[in-house]
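Reviewer comment 2.1 asked that we show a complete input and output for one of the modelled complexes. We chose the zinc ion case, as it is the one discussed in the main text.
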Amino acid sequence: MKVKKGDLVLIIAGKDKGRTGKITRAIPKGLKILVEGINLKKKHVRPKRDGEKGQVVEISAAMDVSNVKIVCPKCGKATRVGYTVEKDIKKRICKKCKQEI
Ligand SMILES: [Zn+2]
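Response of the prediction step:
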């Protein structure tokens, strides 16, 4: 995957289009990611003990990695990711400013 945990991404599709958030979890197998505060789904939590109330909590649901674009920490633009190999180490670069990200 071109993105990883901790990356800042811009949402380009869906109800949160135009917002940015940080990736809290990447699931390479399913090409899915979880983004902080994005794609919130309401979840009803049952009371665990007597006397406790059930709650509705909002949690981030996994979304498709194709719905986001990485925001380059160097130039601040939403960009595509390129790769460069330097001394056998693969590095990610921003397609806009060519800096390593
Ligand atoms: Zn850049």
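The mean pLDDT is 94. We note this here for comparison with the apo prediction described in Section 3.2.
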